[in-house]
Design goal:
- The complex is a heterodimer of chains A (297) and B (265).
- Chain A has helices at residues 45-52, 73-76, 94-102, 111-117, 133-145, 163-178, 190-196, 214-219, 234-238, 260-270, 284-294, and strands at 5-16, 19-30, 34-38, 60-65, 79-82, 151-155, 182-186, 199-204, 207-212, 224-229, 243-249, 252-257, 275-281.
- With 297 residues, chain A is α/β, with parallel strands linked by helices.
- Chain A has two domains: 5-218, 3-Layer(aba) Sandwich (Rossmann fold); 222-281, 2-Layer Sandwich (Alpha-Beta Plaits), CATH 3.30.70.
- Chain A has a six-stranded mixed sheet with strand order 5-6-7-3-8-9, with helices on both faces. Chain A has a four-stranded antiparallel sheet with strand order 11-12-10-13. A three-stranded antiparallel sheet of chain A has the order 2-1-4.
- Chain A is globular, with a radius of gyration of 23 Å.
- Chain B is an all-alpha fold and 265 residues long.
- Helix content of chain B is 75%, strand content 0%.
- Chain B contains eleven helices and no strands.
- Classes of the chains: A alpha/beta (297), B mainly alpha (265).
- The interface between A and B is large, with 43 and 39 residues.
Chain lengths: 297, 265
């Protein structure tokens, strides 16, 4: 066992009747990182997290949390969890929900401190059942952090949040990581992973198809985008080698290229008046689509 | 990297150790909030807390009041019926319908993922059912004199003990139903078994002979017989047999249910 890993799946396989959910999956969560697990629906994200939380048993391979079986409550005392689909007791007030979860940990924050961190203090005395969807997520976030966990599992934490609440959660997540916590985040919002993650793993069909930093993943897509103001026509540029597609929009030319440097040189040579040139790498979203489409069959 | 060689003697980091007082606090907090939430659920609290005493007053005072003055044994029979009716409900419905719904709607999954102490979920529900049993028993004992019945202190204490401990087998039956059914079907299953057990065990009225011979298959029959003994009404069979049947039923159903909960959630 490598002690740097707070949680790890090694060669884990899991099937549900005829469907293979995970296929010899390896996944490691390191200390002090925000690790985003991405993948299309059915890629195995939830199953992978469930194994790390001890909610399911792998058919083969090992799941470890702090070097121990996730079934041991001692291992889970160092984690906080925010799940996607959970109905909490609607009769309990927000402060009571947080107090209940705090009681599971050896030295938790006070409910007041957890509410302060998650901007839920004003909800303290409201019955949970009377909250909006976004407020419920914020309260679940408070419940996830109240135990002062070393490792946080957050499943789609910002779904249903307004922009302000989402920004606040991002700030809190960064603060937690800066204070030494590690976070495993699954999200559909790629810009969330792009903004927050130190490391990303992309799952497709039960195994990791790519992992690394956001920049590593973006670099997997060679394609780049150039846009500029030019007198050249779309038809002209589209015929050049290295150009995958070209279109105009409001007097600007948008070109997708596989070799940005050579196309740029030719653009500059062909149009002396060329101006306002911008070159972009592919975004994480584009990398994600490419990686996961390759694995569709 | 080898994921298999976990050092067995590895010491737990400080963040993973709970002091005994924190651990006790975790169990108590779980039980406190389970009870609080049920008390805040009028559809649960009002019928289970209020109905037994009200029905007892209706039957033992309003309808049969005059008859009971001449036949105190009949009064004790009615008292036993509604006292036991009162302790069955919170256990069966509290476990049956709630466990099914909380399994289905993710609450139990979240609690299994969180470091909730083992069994705190079930112990909390059990204490909730016992707390309701205590309240129901207290109200029943409070209205007892209105039905012109007199019990000795010893009989009152014995009746209270049987009522409160008597909730346990019904918690086990509820739990068993709760882990096997869905949130939609659980209320129906609980209700059917609850009604059948009450009526076919002779809880409310003496049964015809052919039903009397099969009454011992229902746990309510055994609890009724123990309760009769406690309050000085003539009972059938030995107390040990009745206690044994209820104990075995409770242990077996709980073990099956707990195992299934741990494996499948």
């Amino acid at each position: 066992m490598n002690n740097n890993f707070l949680a790890e799946l090694s060669g884990v396989s899991k099937r549900f009747e005829k469907t293979v959910a995970l296929d010899k999956l390896d996944l490691q969560v390191r200390s002090g990182e925000l690790f985003a697990v991405l993948g299309p629906n059915g890629a195995g994200k939830t199953t992978a997290i469930s194994l790390l939380l001890g909610l399911q048993q792998p058919d083969s391979g090992t799941a470890l949390l702090f070097g121990k079986s996730p079934h041991l409550v001692e291992a889970r005392r160092q984690i906080g969890v925010m799940m996607q689909e959970v109905s909490l007791a609607p009769e309990l007030r927000v402060r009571e929900q947080i107090d209940l979860v705090a009681s599971y940990y050896p030295s938790p924050l006070t409910p007041a401190a957890a509410m302060e961190l998650t901007n839920t203090t004003s909800l303290a005395d409201r019955p949970y059942g009377k909250l909006s969807g976004g407020q419920k997520r914020q309260v679940q976030f408070a419940m996830a952090i109240v135990g002062r966990p070393k490792l946080l599992f957050l499943d789609e934490p910002t779904v249903g949040l307004d922009v302000q609440a989402r920004e606040l959660m991002w700030v809190t997540l960064r603060k937690l990581v800066n204070n030494g916590a590690s976070i495993v985040l699954t999200t559909h919002y790629l810009e969330e992973a792009e903004a927050l993650a130190d490391r990303v793993a992309v799952l497709a069909k039960g195994h990791v198809v790519a992992s690394g930093t956001v920049n590593d993943l973006r670099a997997l897509v060679v394609r780049k985008h150039i846009n500029c103001s030019t007198t050249l026509t779309v038809q002209e540029v589209a015929a050049w080698p290295g150009v995958e597609s070209a279109k105009t929009d409001r007097q600007r030319l948008f070109i997708t290229v596989s070799n940005a440097e050579s196309v740029l040189r030719r653009l500059l040579a062909a149009d002396q008046d060329l101006c306002e040139v911008e070159v972009h790498s592919a975004g994480l979203a584009e990398a994600f689509v490419e990686l996961t489409q390759e694995n569709k069959s | 990297m080898s994921a298999i060689s976990v050092p067995v003697s590895s010491e737990l980091p400080a963040g993973a150790v709970m002091s005994p007082s924190r651990l006790l606090n975790a169990y108590l907090t779980e039980a406190k909030y389970e009870t609080v939430r049920m008390l805040r659920t009028p559809a649960f609290a009002i019928p289970f807390l209020g109905l037994p005493a009200l029905l007892y007053l209706l039957f033992a005072v309003v309808i049969f009041g005059a008859a009971i003055r001449n036949d105190p044994q009949a009064g004790l029979f009615i008292f036993a019926a509604f006292a036991l009716f009162g302790v069955m409900g919170p256990g069966m419905f509290g476990f049956g319908t709630l466990v099914a719904s909380e399994r289905e709607h993710g609450l139990l999954t979240l609690k299994r993922a969180l470091p909730m102490p083992p069994s705190a979920y079930l112990i909390a529900k059990l204490l909730m059912a016992v707390m309701f049993g205590v309240i129901v028993t207290a109200t029943m004992l409070a209205v007892l004199p209105l039905g012109h019945l007199k019990l000795t202190v010893g009989q009152l204490l014995a009746a209270a003990a049987v009522s409160i401990l008597g909730a346990l087998p019904f918690c086990a039956i509820g739990l068993f139903i709760g882990v096997l059914t869905t949130s939609r079907s659980a209320p129906a299953f609980v209700n059917i078994i609850y009604q059948v057990m009450m009526h076919l065990s002779g809880l409310f009225y003496p049964l015809p002979k052919f039903l009397r011979t099969i009454a011992p298959v229902w746990p309510t029959y055994h609890l009724q017989q123990i309760f009769f003994r406690a309050i000085g009404v003539s009972s059938q069979g030995s107390a040990f047999t009745h206690i044994g049947v209820l104990l075995v039923l409770t242990v077996v159903l709980t073990l099956i249910a707990v195992r299934r909960l741990a494996v499948k959630g």
